[in-house]
Amino acid sequence: MDTITAIILGIVEGITEFIPVSSTGHMILTSKLLGYNDQDPIMKTFEVVIQLGAILAITVVYWRRILDLFGIKRMNTDAGSLVPRKRLNLLHVFIGIAPALIVGYVARDFIKSLFTANTVLWALVVGGAFMIFAEWFNKTKATITAETMDDLSYKQVFMIGIYQILSVLWPGFSRSGSSISGGMLVGASYKASADFSFLMAIPIMFAASGYEMLESYQNLTKDTLGLFAIGFVTAFVVAYFVVLLFMKWIQKIRLTHFAIYRFILAIVFWLFIMH
Question: Which helix (H) or strand (E) element contains residue 270?
Fold first, then answer.
């Protein structure tokens, strides 16, 4: 690996980690395109390191909400009155992340065996179709009961967690894609679903990346540290601005747009890279 490769992979991770296109899928496909074996121990450690950079970025973006999680209610001062208002709390987050963490831990060896380019291509297509269905259902059939993530019920966040298992068991399906779609299927708005998906990503990714780092920290040597640092910083900077832009333009960029991109990516790789 050289500096240019580290920067390219850092950019790919930063762009794709929190939008519904599958960062895992993009890393596998990009590594293949660059001629790298994505199962190589050094490459796997590098991917964990740059993923930590992306996690740090989302933590910086949501730091106020993270602090707020330690208080269940806040005061609403509208109309000059102080009224206790419902507030997302730590229990919501725990309920939302528990299904994916449990399944990910129990089935981790099986899941690792699925990290192949062919698996990812199919996941891009099926996940894209699932996102289109969720957006259609949310617009035409669902009763929106959560306009913001503070309105989410415990039942809704649990169901979002169940839908998130799809991304755990099928590399390339997309964690954010499955959780945002799941939220829209259970009556949450697009923005509420995206906000909660991003917030859930922090503990899930810290847990997953921390576990992987414990198994591969020996690959952090003086020979690799410089390139790992370049990838880490690149992923952090890119992910920070991608999340800010996504939340700013969320009403203009629909899930269907991401689904179409996933279809095109799968077709291009199938036609020109896999054959």
Answer: helix 255-272
Question: Exposed, middle or buried: residue 3 (CB in 10 Å: 0-12, 13-18, 19+)?
Answer: exposed
Number of domains making up the chain: 1
> Rounded to two decimals, what is the model's pTM?
0.87
235 is in which domain, residue-wise? 3-272
Mean model confidence pLDDT for the chain: 87
Q: Dihedral, CA atoms, 207, 211, 217, 219, nearest 10 degrees?
A: -100
Count the neighbouring beta carbons within 10 Å of the beta carbon of residue 81: 8
* pLDDT tens digits for range 14-23: 999 889 998 8
- Which amino acid, one-letter code, is at 14? G
Residues 6+ apart with CB under 8 A from 240: 14, 57, 60, 61
Backbone φ/ψ region at 172: left (φ over 0), alpha (ψ -120 to 50), beta = left
Contacts of 218 (CB under 8 A, 6+ apart): none
